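Course assignment 3, question 2. Fill in each field.
Student: A.L.
Task: Predict the tertiary structure for the chain below.
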Amino acid sequence: IIQFLNKLLKKTNHQTVAFLSELTKQIHKDFTVETREEGEPFKPDYTFSEKIGSCRDLSWMQIHMLRHLGIAARFVSGYFYMQADKPVFELHAWVEVFLPGAGWIGFDPSHGIITSCYHIPLASSSF
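Answer field:
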């Protein structure tokens, strides 16, 4: 995991926002998202080695990666709104990172994006 992070830090020239965006995109690219509605999140090492996990698992893994680097991160649970002929609200989880001067900014490793108005938070925790 440390080698993975160091490679991304080098690629983004240690620029915080670029690194956070690239990490989120890379997790989306490298990992398979599965639907798993019950149970605790997998341990981050397991998610990383198996390259598969639910939105909770990927978020929990990303939180641990960020905290290892000294970046404040918390878990957020809520809904992801998908535009379609019949709109769908999907239970979802993502990460928020505290950036001084900007506050808590959301990153969604399941979709590889910075959160938007389509992410509706219900609860957050820094457990």
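Instructor remarks: The first helix runs from residue 2 to 11. The radius of gyration is 14 Å.
Grade: pending
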